[in-house]
Each structure stands twice: as C-alpha cells, then as structure tokens.
Design brief:
179 residues, nine-stranded antiparallel beta sheet, three-stranded antiparallel beta sheet
Length: 179
C-alpha cells in the first residue's frame, strides 16, 4: 500500500487485496464486459455540453446503498471495502455506495463538475481498472484511474469524472460517508 497526498485528496494505491479487486470486477462485469451479475441503470446528462443529444452523454450506475438502506441484492460484494473504510479511513456512517461504469469514448469526455452532498461528508472513489480516465478535483488536480487505487476527499468539494479512450469502460465504486 502506498499513501500520498495529491492536491486536496489522499491517494492510496494497492489499498485492497488484489484477489478482492479481481472478485469485484468478475461480479460487476464478466471478462468480455457482459453485464451478468449486476443490474446496471443508464443515466443521462453527465457531460458539460451545450446540447443533451450527444451519443456519449451517458453512463451506467448500480446503487448498493442509499436513503439509509441497502438497495442491492449484491450487497455482499462490497463488505470488504466497507470494512477497510471503517478500520482504516474513519467510516462511521454510510450515506451512499454505488458503482459507476463510463463506456469507452473516442475522445476523453470530461463530465460536469458536481458535489455529492452539500453538507460535510467524505467521498471515496475506488478505481477497479486502469485506463486513461481520471477524476478532477475543484483545485484542478487530476488523479488517474489505476486498478486498486482509492481516492479520499471532501465530498462537498466540486469534482468530476471522465470517460476512457483506452479501455472498454472505466469502472469505479463511489462511497460517501460520515467520519
């Protein structure tokens, strides 16, 4: 495990057991990116565009936890991640936990800046695959997607994601919590 500060975030490389990351990828996606185990929902309007008809203006999400309760029958696959966040990164109360899948685009698509919540919370983004996609923080810091990289930052801070051009998709798990 390697920890460092990058901009206003803490970046932890190799934060989880490699076998667990492989397990998560297998459960979220088959090797050939068939969506077997997890029901994904498509979402529109992630890019900062002048029009909403762009064919790459979408992503997929699967919600594990929101509104104070478990939302997914696949809850068991995130328990190791939650235990790690509790023991090492101060998770006291879970607010939301979801997976995001950003499909391949021919050019990097940078998504809209947003805040997860308007009250104090901690955001953690776990990258499940290595690609040229990234997360940009309000201060302009860009943190690349590397398999098994955890980014922890203030969840009320503006930030945004991007697509990828060198992988079939960019896959992350996002956790918001109170310390």
């Amino acid at each position: 495990m390697r920890r460092r500060t990058q901009g206003t975030a803490e970046v932890i490389d190799n934060c989880l057991n490699r076998d667990y990351i492989t397990f998560l990828m297998h459960r979220l996606l088959q090797k050939d990116f068939k969506w077997i185990f997890i029901p994904w929902e498509d979402q529109d309007g992630i890019e900062d565009l002048n029009h909403e008809t762009d064919m790459h203006n979408y992503w997929f999400t699967h919600c594990f936890y929101a509104a104070g309760k478990i939302q997914s029958e696949q809850w068991d696959i995130v328990e190791v991640l939650l235990d790690t966040l509790k023991k090492q990164y101060g998770l006291r109360k879970l607010l939301r936990l979801k997976a995001n899948l950003y499909p391949f685009t021919h050019e990097i698509a940078v998504h809209k800046m947003h805040r997860d919540y308007v009250f104090p919370n901690t955001a953690a983004i776990l990258s499940l695959n290595t690609c040229d996609g990234y997360t940009t923080l309000a201060d302009g810091t860009q943190i690349g997607s590397e398999e098994n990289r955890l980014i922890i930052f203030d969840g009320q801070q503006n930030h945004c994601s991007s697509s990828t051009t060198n992988a079939k998709a960019r896959l992350n798990i996002i956790v918001n919590y109170l310390e």
